[in-house]
Amino acid sequence: MLVGIDIGGSTTDAVILDNGGVHVVTIEANDPIAAAAGALGKLVESCGLHLDRVERIAATGAGSRVLGETLLGRPVVKVNEFSAIGIGGTSLAARKKALVVSLGTGTAIVSVTGEKIEHVSGTGLGGGTLRGLSKHMLGVSTLETLEAMAARGDLSRVDLTVRDIAGGAIGDLPPGTTASNFGKVGADATADDKALAIMNMIVEVVSVLSIAAARACGQEDIVLTGKLTRIFRFMQRAKRLNFGFGRGFLIPEHADYATAIGAARAAMQ
Ligand SMILES: Nc1ncnc2c1ncn2[C@@H]1O[C@H](COP(=O)(O)OP(=O)(O)O)[C@@H](O)[C@H]1O
Ligand SMILES: [Mg+2]
To answer: Does 129 sit in the ligand 1 pocket, CB within 6 Å?
Structure first.
């Protein structure tokens, strides 16, 4: 059996792909070797497998560069992270061609056209930003709390809209368009309002960047992967997305572990 491991900036995922099924574990650990060994151990334990059944480990992510040729005695092959993102996103979405946006600690944007996988854009705005700003501004360190707060939030006390500055539409920009994230935050803004505004800023910036990259690369489908997809799902459920998000964007099943899945698939090819 082949195990895919993604040692990321926030979490380490380990997956086994088995007859179309996906077994996955996620752990958080600071040391990349401890993270990889821990994730591998937890995966084989939770699947009731013996370590000897693991023929190879396909490792990717920022932490994978410190791994040696073996992990717990099993051979390791390194997979380029952008390849793992591209293969993971397109295989889960069943597309040959797509823009894959990895929403992790930071954001990486990869264009896939058949065999060609190209890292085309990205931003440091991502899951680390969400956690950092939530902790610093609100003293909140779990996504559950942040979501509960955001569900009660009101953006009109934080974000400046086109309507606020122009009284109506500006050309093709509808009145509700954000003119400036946090541009109107005043003393009356509550912690709930700010929680929503932090999430909204990240979702808006990443979406706008993704749409621009898709246009530049001639891509129609934008596949979102990584654990920060959670806030896109939240904003969708809460009906807080006030732009044409639906068009072209998709979040496939297992999107949270797409990069580890992509590493395993890349090593099978
Ligand atoms: N269960 C979770 N554990 C940790 N981070 C999570 C979780 N769910 C969502 N997140 C968010 O996702 C980000 C990490 O995403 P992930 O895909 O694991 O990135 P990376 O591969 O860079 O570690 C965190 O910064 C956090 O904002
Ligand atoms: Mg990751």
So the answer is: no
The Å distance, Cα 155 to ligand 1 centre, comes to 24
Give Dmax over CA atoms of the chain in angstroms. 68
- List the domain boundaries for the chain: 2-83+258-268, 95-154+190-251
Closest protein CA for atom 8 of ligand 1: 227
Closest residue CA from atom 20 of ligand 1: 8
Closest CA to 8 of 227, 187, 268, 266: 227
From first to last of the 269 residues of the chain, give the pLDDT tens digit.
Answer: 999 999 999 999 999 998 778 999 999 989 999 999 999 999 999 999 999 999 999 999 999 999 999 999 999 999 999 999 999 999 999 999 999 999 999 999 999 999 999 999 999 999 999 999 999 999 999 999 999 999 999 999 999 999 999 999 999 999 999 999 999 999 999 999 999 999 999 999 999 999 999 999 999 999 999 999 999 999 988 877 766 666 689 999 999 999 999 999 999 98
Q: List the CATH code of the domain at 2-83+258-268.
A: 3.30.420.40
Two domains, one topology: 2-83+258-268 and 95-154+190-251:
yes
Residue 52 CA to ligand 1 centre (angstroms): 30
Which residue, among 131, 10, 14, 152, has the nearest Cα to 74 in the 3D structure?
14
pTM of the model: 0.96
Nearest CA to ligand 1 atom 9: 227
Query: Is 228 close to ligand 1, i.e. is its CB under 6 Å away?
Result: yes
Contact 105 CB / ligand 1 (< 6 Å): yes
Class of 95-154+190-251 in CATH: alpha beta
